[in-house]
Design goal:
- The chain has two domains: 155 residues, Heat Shock Protein 90, CATH 3.30.565; 79 residues.
- The chain starts with a helix and ends in a 7-residue tail after the last strand.
- With 244 residues, it is of the alpha+beta class.
- The protein has six helices and seven strands.
């Protein structure tokens, strides 16, 4: 995310430059189904990431606990010989190791709770690349990287970004290429949906309504593109996993 993006006040999705909902009720909200092969591969990759992450945390916890045991055994021997000051120092050092154990425990609990909600860790660059490859009707490019995975509902995110691509195409009459630019800063993940073409005025309100409903469902915020509110693009700020 650039400084220009952060300087623009976040607006409610319904108040942003998107057209107002059409009269006669809301457009039905549906989540696009992914192919069974693609969904299976995504689940397998997510399971691999979850397993690798959990294994690393468990092994780290095991090392910390072994160190605590070693320190306590040393204390047991030192009680009869060492001074009070040295014993207090040894106790403080042992408590520090326990603090590290607490930190690992919090990470394990947090990520397990995410998994229990059906959330998966997503590499946004790979996620968007797969989404772009499945798009028809025009070129979709992907740029940027993220240092951390985003935890959330991948099906809703995929449908939201697909709706955003369609909305940007409508705002440019299908001209130019669409860009998905991912970034993360201070735990906040963003996807910028932009176009190489200029915006036009004629946009189907139903497309904007569907995009707005999907953003609300995911808990995402929509900000104007750094090129300004007149540009066809937008920045989608995903909900922070740590705050959920």
């Amino acid at each position: 995310m650039t400084d220009a993006d952060t300087e623009v006040p976040t607006t409610a999705v319904g108040d942003y430059v998107l057209p107002k909902p059409p009269r006669g009720g809301e457009v039905p909200l549906t989540i696009a189904a992914t192919s069974s092969a693609s969904a299976s591969l995504r689940r397998a990759e997510a399971a691999r990431q979850l397993g690798a992450r959990s294994l690393a945390l468990v092994e780290c916890q095991q090392q910390f606990l072994a160190e605590v045991r070693e320190r306590l055994e040393g204390l047991d021997i030192a009680i009869a010989e060492d001074s009070r000051a040295r014993l207090k120092g040894a106790v403080r050092a042992t408590v520090e190791v326990l603090d590290w154990c607490d930190a690992v425990q919090r990470d394990l609990q947090r990520e397990t709770q995410f998994a229990c909600q059906g959330w998966l860790p997503h590499d946004l660059a790979s996620f968007c690349a797969e989404l772009a490859a499945a798009q028809t009707g025009g070129q979709v490019l992907v740029a940027g990287t993220t240092a951390t995975a985003w935890w959330g509902d991948g099906a809703v995110l995929a449908t939201l970004l697909a709706a955003g691509i369609e909305l940007v195409r409508e705002r440019t009459s299908g001209q130019g290429a669409v860009l998905l630019e991912v970034a993360d800063a201070e735990g906040v993940h963003t996807v910028r949906i932009a176009s190489s073409a200029d915006a036009v005025e004629d946009v189907d309100p139903a497309s904007a309504t569907r995009f707005r409903a999907l953003a609300d469902r995911l808990g995402a915020a929509v900000m104007p593109d750094r090129l300004g509110v007149a540009a066809p693009g937008m920045v989608v700020r995903l909900p922070a996993s740590a705050a959920e």
